[in-house]
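Q: What would this complex look like in 3D?
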Amino acid sequence: MAPRNRGAAEPAGRELLSAGDVARTVARMAHQVIERTSLGAADAAPVVLLGIPTRGAPLAHRLAARIADFSGARVPTGVLDITLYRDDLRRRPTRPLGTTELPPGGVDDQLVILVDDVLFSGRTVRAALDALRDAGRPSAVQLAVLVDRGHRELPIRADYVGKNVPTARTEEVHVQLHEVDGRDAVLLRRMEDPA
Amino acid sequence: MTGLVLRGVRPYGEDPVDLEIRDGVLAALGSDVDTDGAEVRDCDGLVALPGFVDLHTHLREPGREDTETIATGSAAAALGGYTAVFAMANTDPVADNAVIVEHVWRRGREVGLVDVYPVGAVTVGLAGEKLAELGTMAGSRARVRMFSDDGRCVADPLLMRRALEYSTALDAVIAQHAEEPRLTVGAQAHEGDLAARLGLAGWPAAAEESIIARDCLLARHTGARLHVCHVSTAGAADLLRWAKAQGIRVSAEVTPHHLLLDDERLATYDPVNKVNPPLRTAADAKVLREALAEGVLDCVATDHAPHAPQDKDCEWSAARPGMLGLQTALPVVIRTMVEPGLLDWRGVARVLSERPAEIAGLPDQGRPLEAGEPATLTLVDPAASWTVRGAELASIAANTPYEGMALPGRVVTTLLRGRITAHEGEVLA
Amino acid sequence: MRHLLATEGLDAATATAVLDTAEELKRTLLGREVRKLPTLRGRTVITMFYEASTRTRVSFEIAGKWMSADVVNVSASGSSVGKGESLRDTALTLAAAGADCVIVRHPASGAAHRLAGWLQEAGTSVVNAGDGTHEHPTQALLDAATLRERLGDLAGKRVAIVGDVLHSRVARSNVHLLTTLGAEVVLVAPPTLLPAHVDRWPVTVSHTFDAELPSLDAVMMLRVQAERMHGGFFPSAREYSIAYGMSEARLAALPEHAVVLHPGPMLRGMEIASSVADSPRAAITQQVANGVHVRMAVLYHLLAHEEEVRS
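A: Here is my prediction, written as structure tokens for the whole assembly.
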């Protein structure tokens, strides 16, 4: 039952984003969210940010904090665990379940923005959409990711992308966040042991 | 008959000699035996023992010929070094009358690999209610001298008293399966730590010991001869020591599996380890080995009990109790008694051959390896080790608890009154 | 985890992981209209009950269905089981028919262990839903889940298991699991209803219920089966009830926070007073509710991981 701790082993690798870059990127995404959702406008749908564990959860909180800084709007934030909806459970050791925490107002008739660190195959987002369907009925769903590394396996695209990074399949993108990893960075490294 | 000379055998594991066999008799032992016209076999270093006698064998015929027949059981016996076996009465139909015991006796003679002696039932149908016709069975051509309801206890004390009394006129012995049935209702395993954890209903040692104590007192009261089957508890050994010291005419057997195995075996729930009486604790097994060495337990008897796969490859409580034993008895005795120094080869001869022959009153079995005695003997390679495979044993059934175990000592040749019945793993009818 | 056959030998980390999963599942499903997760879609779970037990069978069935597994129920009367087919043949047939998991209730102790052996090659998981007088591991897990909800961490908590310990698979499973999780267990029963060599178990034993009450955090009452009442294990139902029944007075003697559990079905008036069973101090319906989540968690840990680690 090993957790998948992608960033825990302090991977060495090329730094794509520094701590300062990460902060600037999140800020830029916050501005984009405010603009695209007409946040604060009278006729705009209420927005909810749902982070996908592990690193999507702190990212969602950071995004909400920046949005509050820039617009004064307090966007409800929650966590959506997708483990039970994954399509790769039988390819890995048992995964412990994360906790889903929806904001008190739920997600019904709201604009839900899913937040994750890296967009890769799209399967995580597919699972998140399934999980979201069981959690309620949002008016619309959008996706915000810090890094889009390409290689999609499903027809899924992000609405907000912090940075597009062209990668090879033999490479891994590691997002590190202070809340989880003790520091902020995005690293690119070669897979030592391609499965 | 031309004669057979076995060169270099070691009687009772002692100094090597040549054995000259003529007309089914040990004609001479020594270094200058007459080889004239005889087949000479080199038996360098093989230990010679008198042929083994098993007081407790289930040959399953009639009734369960899918698991063993008198032919296959005789083969297993000969391959295990046996020259005489006592076929228990719990067949179907039960050997509680002259017809069945004569059938078993006759089939044994036809097969001719070992002397097959039928054991008669004590009570009709083993039901424990009414004495079977012991006298008729004793007077039949099978000349039954041992009676037992084995598999069940003659639990009624009055009936047991009558059986013991009645047997004195027949010069017979009553072999008791000591198990107080009221103390073993639903019992599945030795009532100990492990059975309690495994949720297997317990079989207390007291259920065995209380019957042994009772029967010893009845034997004293009646002056009859009592034989206690498959003694399995330390407490039973104490009772038997006491009874023998009193001069009570009691003898007792222990099975190879109770010498070697213990209830740790239960943990897998594999019913190959289910047996009656159950495997007891390691402490019991140790006491039994010491009691056998001391002579408190007279002999080793196999309780060879073949069972069909469907009666063993099932859940524990549905399985039948019993284990194969004829071809593994000597190796287990070597492992448990000879290797630790509890018995020498003379002791092995005593517990596997001489004492059981005496208890059963067989005049031509268990005899000393001396000139003029019957050439009924077993040649053993004590240095050989072999791995037990149930499927390779001669029995139809394969329910050996020693599957995959490497055991010491291999029976090379078995001779019954000068005739080779088994040699190098093959039977010679 | 490949099989769940017993709580004996289940390590604390695994047991805790299952309990944590059950807790998350409960939270996830709380207040939902659609109580269905896609996690075990396409997996086939077969319940094989050789003893009547609506409670446990239904709990497993709901658990499987809420996880989207295909659940097939085989009962001793409705299949070849009743025609005398051996347990082994029935199990191999069900495995060949594509069962990923067989949940078995059987009157023979060790039946689940045997089944696991026969199904080793087929790769089918086995869950013991009660075997004879041996174990009933999911009952112990749901009891532990309930106690965790009521009492928090079980380490250092004192739990009495009261009644027919000798014949109780629930008691055996609870003794192992509770002690593994750090609780202290005291068995309260007449000597006739205690297993042989219980002194070697990691528990204390008492024949005086009243003396234990003030120090307890929880009481687990065991069912007294009718055949024991007539089997001479104790003189009369009345005497048993007086000595070992969970009465109102005994409830009052428990600490304020202590909780009363019963695996059901209950013999009201005999082993537990009706007012106690229905009091908020009793967690009996909570146990049933947790049963579903715990069994979902067990299925998750058995079936939702890669084959390579299923050993």
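A: To summarize the key features: The longest strand of chain C covers residues 125-131. Chain C has a mean pLDDT of 92.
Q: Very helpful, thank you.
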